[in-house]
Every structure is written in C-alpha cells, then in structure tokens.
C-alpha cells in the first residue's frame, strides 16, 4: 500500500478490509507513528513500512513470524530467515550457539534468541527494527504485556473473540483447510470454531501408541459432533515414527534457522503434510500455544503468594500434598527473592548436575536445563559462559512476574517451533499455522487476573470458559491429558542402529562438542525413563542440521 513517499506491507493472515492500514499510513509521520496499528492488526503478520527512507520491520509477539538482522558492508539489513542473512554476510556457524542447542529441554531466555550464525541477531519480542537511511539499525520496544486484572468471565470473552477471529482469518480463504484433532483440548477447540465457519475442513488424528492414552476416544467424541468436517485417522501401524530423522548429507530437514525443534517428529510432519495436500488443504492448523497460554507452571504459586498471601495458603497446601513436596522445601522456594540474573548464574552452576528426582519443587525463573552426559567439557564451558555473560549484563526478564515471564518465554518457544515447521514443510504446498499464537490471543490470555488462572477442579479454566457454547460441555470437562513417552521409546528402539552408525562420523564430535563414544554408549543402553530419552532429541537435531545444506560454508553473497 502506498501513500505518497510512504509504503506499508503486511504479510500473513489479516482481514480482507485494509482500510485501517490506509488510514494509519495517512496519519503516520514516522515509523514510530505505527504503534497503534501494530496493536490493532489481528492475525499473525510481518509488518514492514517505509516512510521517507526510514523503515520499520516487525513480526509477531510469539515470534511465529519473526525478524532477524545483521550488518554487511556497514549497512543494517533484515530478513524473516536468518539463513538468508548468513548467506548474504558469509557468516559461519557460532560454536557457542551450537553447544547451546544441546541443552535439554531448552535454553532459557535470553539465550533462546541466539542465532547459530555469527553476526545474525533475532529481534527481541515486542520490539520493532528501525532501519535508517544512513544504514544504521536499532531495536525499539513498542509492546508491553497487558495488566492481568480481568475477572475470569471478562477475560474469557476476550479470548473467545480473539480466538474466533484468529480461526476465521484462516478459514475465510478459498479452498480446504485442515487441522489437528489430537483429542486434546486445544486442537479440539480450534476444530469446533473452524467447522462452524467453513464447509471445507479436514481433521487429522494420529493414534497414540500407549493403550492407556485416551486421546483417540476423545477425538472420536469430538468428530461425532463435527458432521460437516472430513475426518482422517492415522493408525498406530503408521510408517512414520519419532526419531525417523533424515541425516544423509544434503537431505536433512532444513528450517533455515538451525537445528529443528521438531527434528524428531519430522517424518510425521512430512507424512501429514503430504496427506493434507492430497486432500486439497493449503493450510493446516494446530493447537500449539494452548498449554502455555491457558495452563500454568509451578511458579504460579510463587506469584500468587506474593500478590495474595492469605488466599494462596490453601492453594499451596493442596499442591504440596498432591505433589508430596516437603514443607521446608516449599517454604524455601516460596521465600526465594532472587532476581533473574541471579537465577541465570545458579542455572549455569547446575548444567552438569544430575536431574532432580521427584518429588522436586522448582518455583524459580528458569527451568532446570542440563547438558547431556555426552557433551564435552568444552561444550559445557561455552554454554556456561553464555549464561554468565547474560547474567553479568543484568538481563531483565520478559515480565517482572515469574509466571508471566515463563508464559512469554514458552510462547516464544512455540512461535519458533511453528515458524520452523512452516518453512520446513513449505515444499508440500501446505502452510502450517497456530492461531493460538496470534498477538490478540496472547494479549487476551494474559489479561485474566492471577487468582482466576487456576481454578480448583478445572483444567485450563480460561479456555474452557471461553469455549462454553462453542464446544460441547462434556468435552470441555475432560480432566485427563494424553502422555506420549511410548513414542519416544519406540522411536529410539527403531532408530538405534542408524544413530550408532552416525557415531562413527559425528559432525558434533568433529567440532569438539560431543563425545562420540559416550553418545554411542547411551544409544546402546538407553534409560527406561522417558525424560532421559528426550536428551537425544536436541543432539540428533543438531547433528541433522550440521548435515543440511544451510550448515555448509558459503562465500559471501552466494545463496544457500
């Protein structure tokens, strides 16, 4: 859209009516004047505007659509893919960032932002990039989390409106769309919203391997109430499985960002994308983000105790008894006043400590990420130094409240996951998307007052309140949740020989980040506990990426 010397472009899912964009462009006198527009645009978008040579570029709050920046020949440049910037600048792999990717389950904020290419930076969530005519560039903060002061009913109405609009933006396009129908609450809600708005909906359910997992039962109950949709059932006997990871040089999964967060599930994603495309779908929706936005973490108790000391006591006692937390440990955790940099330093000291055994209580800022036992001392030292640098820089959390910080941190992880999936699956012709990660949905989910985020006897009370009248009551009242450790065990078992072969020519070992013998031993005698098996995921993802086209060195300016 053009208005004299001003230009604005919005990429992604947005309403057909663009009059608001035109009015915003008419009123703006600089890139700073577009904040109100950025706060009002629904959907998930990249926004780029040029006003008299000054450029504003930004993505979404969750980073589902993101901006990366680098400098080349004294000029700041930006792109939605860091691989493009690495090709332009001739950047090589950042050894410290690669070592960071080995962490299980994931690096903490702000280390999640670190690109695997030197000199390529990710935009901080809630910021836009200002590119000036003189070639300089800097990040400008435009967004702050909304106050969490709405009663449950009001916040639920805001979530219902935002989520309905998010799905409507996807289903309003011509042609068939598809969606996960896992049986879980999040994807089920999306399916009911979508089916009410299109006659061309296909759903996909992948049967879990564990007989005790009730997700298929609940998916069929939902499907029976969605008569206009076309339902597809993927059996347990499917070919694709976890850890069926392509590691042949030049053919490995390439997200354009580095190691894929869902590398272990790439075979399933590829098969589902192919099936959806054959069924005529051009967009596939999943419920990613629902757990983070509408669930909770143990840090909820820390936040509740700070704001409502008396009201929090019975809630804390229920959780303590349910999880068998010792009283002394509970009191110590609740009394902790350590700031975010202190938490990073403490986490750095625990990188090689054994994982805590249950019952374990952690109400802190960061999770207990660990380096795998096959990581070399050099890799551990690189990661520990990154923690130390972030702590000594006085890095601030994403929100002063621990619960809200973690909500934004984990939502950002989901945003990274969906944008990687979208890029990796693009060749299928099916766009992968997660409506729950749209900006307006994130804001609505954060607006509920703290005391209403968890309600005794109810699972995800904010989401279920929002979906009353849209999703059948008996489905909303489900309190169990599927568990998928069987998929991990089966994936490791089926692919053990392939991974043992990798250990004879391990790229991570060539870089001094992994001890190949220690990794081989772990593959030969995997732990029976699923949380130990998850340590393989990030290591395999890193190894697969090092064999992909984008990891190969290229001269400056040569496209990847």
Give the secondary structure arrangement, pairings included.
Blueprint: E1 2-3, E2 6-13, H1 19-27, H2 35-40, E3 44-51, E4 54-58, E5 68-72, E6 75-79, H3 82-89, H4 95-100, E7 121-122, E8 127-131, E9 137-141, H5 152-171, E10 176-180, H6 185-195, E11 201-206, H7 215-224, E12 230-234, H8 266-278, E13 281-285, H9 290-294, H10 299-307, H11 309-323, H12 327-335, H13 340-349, H14 377-392, H15 402-424, E14 431-433, H16 439-446, H17 450-453, H18 461-467, H19 473-476, H20 485-502, H21 507-510, H22 516-524, H23 530-533, H24 535-546
Parallel strand pairs: 10-11, 10-13, 11-12, 13-14
Antiparallel strand pairs: 1-2, 2-3, 3-4, 4-8, 5-6, 5-7, 8-9
Helix pairs in contact: 5-16, 5-18, 10-11, 13-14
Question: What does it look like?
Answer:
The chain is α/β, with parallel strands linked by helices and 560 residues long. It has 24 helices and 14 strands. Helix 5 crosses helix 18 and helix 13 packs antiparallel against helix 14. It is globular and about 65 Å long.
């Amino acid at each position: 859209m053009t208005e004299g010397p001003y230009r604005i472009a919005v990429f992604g899912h947005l309403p057909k009516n663009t009059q608001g964009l035109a009015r915003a462009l008419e009123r703006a006198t600089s890139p700073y004047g577009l904040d109100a527009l950025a706060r009002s645009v629904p959907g998930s978008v990249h926004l780029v505007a040029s006003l008299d040579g000054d450029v504003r570029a930004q993505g979404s709050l969750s980073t589902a659509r993101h901006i990366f920046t680098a400098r080349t020949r004294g000029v700041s440049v930006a792109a939605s893919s860091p691989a493009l910037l690495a090709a332009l600048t001739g950047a090589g792999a950042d050894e410290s960032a690669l070592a960071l990717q080995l962490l299980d389950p994931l690096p903490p904020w702000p280390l999640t932002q670190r690109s695997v290419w030197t000199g390529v930076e990710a935009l901080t969530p809630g910021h836009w990039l200002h590119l000036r005519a003189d070639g300089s560039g800097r990040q400008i903060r435009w967004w702050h989390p909304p106050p969490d002061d709405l009663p449950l009913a009001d916040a639920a109405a805001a979530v219902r409106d935002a989520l309905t609009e998010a799905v409507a933006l996807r289903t309003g396009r011509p042609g068939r769309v598809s969606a996960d129908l896992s049986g879980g609450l999040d994807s089920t809600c999306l399916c009911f919203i979508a089916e009410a708005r299109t006659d061309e909906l296909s759903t996909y359910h992948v049967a879990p391997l564990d007989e005790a997992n009730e997700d298929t039962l609940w998916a069929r109950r939902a499907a029976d109430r969605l008569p206009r949709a076309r339902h597809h059932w993927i059996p347990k006997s499917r070919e694709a499985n976890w850890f069926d990871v392509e590691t042949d040089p030049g053919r490995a999964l390439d997200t354009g960002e580095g190691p894929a967060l869902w590398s272990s599930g790439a075979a399933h994603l590829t098969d589902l994308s192919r099936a959806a495309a054959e069924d005529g779908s051009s967009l596939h929706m999943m419920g990613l983000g629902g757990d983070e936005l509408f669930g909770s973490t143990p840090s909820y108790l820390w936040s509740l105790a700070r704001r409502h000391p008396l009201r929090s006591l019975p809630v804390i006692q229920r959780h303590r008894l349910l999880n068998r937390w010792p009283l002394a440990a509970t009191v110590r955790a609740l009394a902790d006043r350590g700031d975010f940099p202190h938490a990073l330093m403490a986490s750095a000291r625990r990188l090689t400590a054994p994982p805590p055994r249950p019952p374990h209580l952690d109400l802190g800022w960061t999770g207990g990420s660990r380096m795998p036992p096959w990581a070399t001392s050099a890799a551990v030292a690189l990661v520990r130094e990154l923690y130390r640098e972030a702590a000594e820089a006085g890095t601030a959390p994403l929100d002063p409240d621990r619960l809200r910080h973690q909500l934004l941190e984990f939502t950002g992880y989901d945003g990274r996951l969906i944008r990687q999936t979208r890029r990796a699956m693009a060749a299928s012709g099916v766009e992968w998307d997660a409506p729950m990660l749209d900006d307006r949905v994130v804001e609505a989910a954060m607006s509920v007052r703290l005391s209403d985020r968890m309600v005794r006897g109810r699972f995800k009370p904010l989401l279920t309140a929002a979906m009353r009248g849209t999703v059948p009551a008996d489905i909303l009242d489900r309190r169990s949740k599927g568990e998928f450790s069987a998929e991990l065990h089966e994936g490791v078992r089926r692919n053990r020989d392939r991974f043992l072969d990798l250990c004879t020519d391990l790229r991570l070992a060539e870089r001094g980040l992994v001890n190949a013998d220690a990794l081989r031993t772990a593959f030969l005698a995997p732990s029976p506990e699923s949380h130990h098996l998850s340590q393989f995921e990030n290591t395999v993802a890193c190894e697969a990426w090092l064999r992909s086209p984008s990891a190969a060195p290229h001269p400056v300016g040569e496209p990847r």
